[in-house]
Amino acid sequence: MKIAVNTRFLLKDKLEGIGRVTYELLSRMVADHPEDEFIFLFDRPYDEEFVFAKNVKPIHVFPPARHPYLWYWWFEMSIPRILKKEKPDVFFSPDGYCSLTTDIPTVMITHDIAHVHYPDQLPNQVLKYYNKYVPQFLQKADHIITVSEATKKDIAKTYGIDDKKMEVIYNGCGEEFKPVNVHTQQDIRKKYSDGEPYFFYIGSINPRKNIHRLIEAFDIFKKQSGSKTKLVIGGRFAWKPQIIENAYQNAAHQSDIVFLDYVEKEELPKILGSATALVYVSVFEGFGIPILEAMQCEVPVITSNVSSMPEVAGQAALLVDPLDVNYIANALNELDNNEDLKLELIRKGRDQRKRFDWQTASEQVFEVLEKIAEK
User: Fold this and answer.
1) What pLDDT, in 10s, does the model give residues 130-166?
2) What is the C-alpha end-to-end distance of the chain, expressed in Å?
3) 3-state secondary structure of 58
4) Residue ranges covered by each domain of the chain
5) pLDDT (tens digit per residue) in 254-263
6) Do domains 2-172+357-374 and 182-354 have the same CATH topology?
7) When you count CB atoms within 10 A of the terminal residue's CB, does the N or C end of the chain come out lower?
């Protein structure tokens, strides 16, 4: 079988979200199926790190698709030209976009349709593109993989996509995430939080991730508790950072809030594994991989009680209303003080994390690709 793949989010030292999903699925799939040919389609010069084996043919496809006009050019003109030339059996697009102008059978992963629920959190040109093309992508794709039941139901309700055309394949967690020893914890805390314990957030920094309310809740927690625990925030600034910057500037305990920017993949498991808790209180998520990563590191989790997050967390997290800063502050206080609660959440996390595995996900995605290619 010849499989063409949209790999535009495989970026050297910049693997986030969709890029990480793409990496974890394909690195395993390529190794497990040496008899099959994989054509990786990059939108910029690629790094050899992502040419996983001899059965991968990398192709740099112009232009770099990082703007609505260039998205259209890449998916509707450049990609169809390459697919016509390479003649794959199936086209796999793991980032929620596909080509409307190719006849190649297409499998697409849709992670969420957040633009429908939070349109004000996107630039106008991006929102217009999503509103016009996302419904067309969902109709065009021969099969849609979603990363949670919540996203599957959201798509069916919003766009009327047939349930039989979709299936849920959960994300997994990298093997590098595991508990860290006390000495590592001490070293990491000296490096990032002046030796003090800290709550940790990891992910892109934009209004949907609710960082501004997390900062407000942390301020309340500090005022009420007098705790020395800090807040460490890892991730790059994305859409509309002003509301987050305003929250930070207005925080009374600004000196206890640390922004790390992008966190290197080698360092992330150690920083997460040394945290008092992961605080992931987004207002909307298609999945929420950091929740799993925290469970693998045996770190307690505070997360939101909306969209997919309760599905991923199960009973192994404190669930909060992401719009209620006092609710979030109370959860911070509980995990700062209650060792028994921490141990209980860690124990439940050991069971919950067994439901999510990259190897299983890779095998399930390959089965879908095989099925659609045969049709």
Assistant:
1) 999 999 999 999 999 999 999 999 999 999 999 999 9
2) 13
3) strand
4) 2-172+357-374, 182-354
5) 999 999 988 9
6) yes
7) C
Whole-angstrom Cα distance, residue 317 to residue 315? 6
- Which residue carries 């040394």 as its tokens? 274
What contacts 312, CB < 8 A, 6 or more positions away?
A: 148, 287, 288, 291, 292, 303, 356
Please state whether beta strands 106-110 and 143-146 pair in parallel, antiparallel, or not at all (unpaired).
Answer: parallel
pLDDT band at 240 (very low <50, low <70, confident <90, very high): low
Q: Is 79 a residue whose pLDDT tops 90?
A: yes
Among candidates 63, 60, 100, 95, which has minimal Cα distance to 80?
A: 100
- Would you say residue 287 has pLDDT above 90? yes
Tell me which residue of 10, 62, 5 sits closest to 38, measured CA to CA: 5
353 three-class SS = helix
Rounded CA separation 180/227 (Å): 23
Helix (H) or strand (E) holding 145: strand 143-146
- CATH superfamily for 2-172+357-374 is Glycogen Phosphorylase B; (3.40.50.2000)
**CATH topology for the 182-354 domain:** Rossmann fold (3.40.50)
pTM above 0.85, yes or no: yes
- Tally of CB atoms within 10 A around 306: 18
- Give the tokens for residue 368: 């879908």
Query: Using CB atoms within 10 A of its CB, is residue 309 exposed (0-12), middle (13-18) or buried (19+)?
Result: buried
Is 248 within 8 Å of 215 (Cβ atoms)? yes
- Mean pLDDT on 336-363: 97
pLDDT at 238 (0 to 100): 73
Residue 30 tokens read as 């390529």
